[in-house]
Sequence to fold (804 residues):
Amino acid sequence: MLVSYKWLQEYVDIADVSADELAEKITKSGIEVEGVEKLNEGIRGVVTGHVLECERHPNAEKLSKTLVDIGEGEPVQIICGAPNVAKGQKVAVAKVGAVLPGNFKIKKAKLRGEESHGMICSLQELGIEAKLVAKEFSEGIFVFPEDTEVGQDALALLGRDDEVLELGLTPNRADCLSMIGVGYEVAAILDEKVKLPEPKVAATQERAEDYIKVIVEDQAANPLYVAKVIKNVKIGPSPLWMQARLMASGIRPHNNVVDITNYILLEYGQPLHAFDYDRFGSKEVLVRRAKQGEEMTTLDDTKRTLTDEHLVITNGSEPVALAGVMGGANSEVSDDTTTVLLESAYFIGPVIRQSSKDHGLRSEASSRYEKGVDPKRVRPAAERAAELMAKYAGGEVLDGTVAADSLQVEPAVVSVTLEKINRVIGTELTMDEVIAIFAKLQFEVVVDNDTVTVTVPTRRGDITIEEDLIEEVARLYGYDNVPMTLPVGASTPGHLTGYQQKRRIVHRFLEGAGLYQAITYSLTNKEKATQYALEKYEPVELAMPMSEDRSLLRLSIVPQLLEVLKYNLARQNDSLAVYETGAVFLKNSDSDLPVEEEHLAVAVTGLWENHQWQGEKKAVDFYVVKGILDGLFAKLGLDNQVGYHATEIEGMHPGRTAELSLNGDIIGFVGQVHPTVQKELDLKETYVFEVNLRAVLEVSTELLQYVPIPRFPSITRDIALVVDKNKSAADLKAIIIEEGSKLLKEVHVFDLYEGERMEEGKKSIAFSLKYFDPEKTLTDEEIAKTHEKVLKAVEEKAGAVLRG
Fold:
């Protein structure tokens, strides 16, 4: 809400308080003032002038040579480029020595051989936004009314000698969406009285009810509709002071009738609408729900299709306005309008919000109806508008007001105890002090012992419960005056959840292992959306994508990491290891929203080790990335629950890829990117893995416990098992661990042999088994018994034969 400081003075005495001081007081009372703009800041030397002569410049077709009286004796010659400059006009003139916005200084100049002693100004050149300039002056200079005196301060006439406070209102403070509402607020802050307009309308003998009838079908959505009729209006510009106030409030002037409705909107917070009575099409106003598929053209010349959720104003047959949002083009006030049908109504907020949302129309009227207007201002606002139309448009107001009134509004009555007020705020206010605060707000108060019962005016629809009253007391007493106290009650220190703690462990481990974190787009294209996906889903497509390359939600992180490697390799960063933890998005059949699943992905290429001094180099291979995984799972306490199994995945090397399982469930894959993909992306030999991080981190693990170094010796047995080539070491290891009883503490693979002395289709895998008992020294008989059990199990379950 933009509030003119000079306009505000009409409602409350603020002469002793500057605009900046007032802004600070309003902010401290609970409504933030986001800024104070001095409209004439940096501008000086602009006066009104009278164009005595105007002819075309002898050396330039688009320039005019004018002789202008600026009230300082001899007229001055000014060269002007405005297309609408003409003899006899009263205009704004920046004299020689004047300063315009942007520190633009006016000097004596010579334009195409002719001297120019000043500048005839447009409103834009005086710092007024183009969108606020009336259309007739938007492409040229501003012309003052004919009776304007020469030599006056042009900025004062244009209302630029003013300051504007910008209020950052929260939705509950709709009462301050009007000058009167702000007046009540400021009066309460300064302990002053509010001066309200007192409309006095001189009505004719003709009666309004002979011209119009009002019928409301949906009284729940429109409990009050008021209509007045003003005849013999003369459409023209509104008074300059009114135009200035509208522009200061961010509204463009149009003509006297429309400007008056906008002026009342700002003054009372009550939206009005003026129809051309002769174009209205009937003598009946019918307010109803629109018919499904019904069409109308609004003032912005847009044809709109309506539904039965929209409320419309009709002439009994066709819509002439979208209620509370925008009028129709078929009955708008135009230059030849002579009779005005004036509407003032109380519409229910949710109904107007629905219409505004459905049609993408946000107007000053709809924003006020949505938040709630004061039902007791509907009739006074209509009377005030009729008074101004009679005064500034020469209209004759017909006697009476035609209304459809089913409105029943009772002011809210709220009670609160003095004890609770002081307990919540932390003060020691007396009852007299509390009553005085409510008196500043102009609330009616009844006191019964320790209880204060307040009758809340309808203009303050935000006050409904006792906590609202306490807030009013606190803010007007002054937040700065509230004593500082420590909060009382139990407090809970913040902490990370178990999942968050484990995720942090993952990040720290990977960064400690030498990987850099990457953050890539979650959006991708059709080609990459399904690549390397752990689960086969149709990708989720955006309804309004920025581009085709960002039109789908990803199912895997690996494609984005490969793009990171490609980008770096193209810039001679030839050894790189990156990781990312982030969401992939799975289509949800039960909802429009996808399921987000957190994944971890790693991509490594180039040299893993490069010690120039020692002359050692180690290129990335499968066992490097597998080692990263093994170390991570060991850090999380899951090393004995994870298995690797050879597999084939599209886009991965068929002989160097394994799927990962956790307690039997597939959670990811690890391996080399397929050579053809590497070639397409200009990558060197590259290895990646991706795992379902949520599945990993949600596995419950035992807490780490200290175990002392064994006092008793361990015994190691090495075995070489001959098995079929398709049998994996992981399967054999799992069998050994399962059958090794509590004496078997460690199992490691240390050799693989597939040489010429091995039988066709066979291979030899060597394991090292460590046995010990922390409580005693093991005997040969105990070791032999357990070891024989292991050998028998691998023979029976895997067909393994002990190699001789």
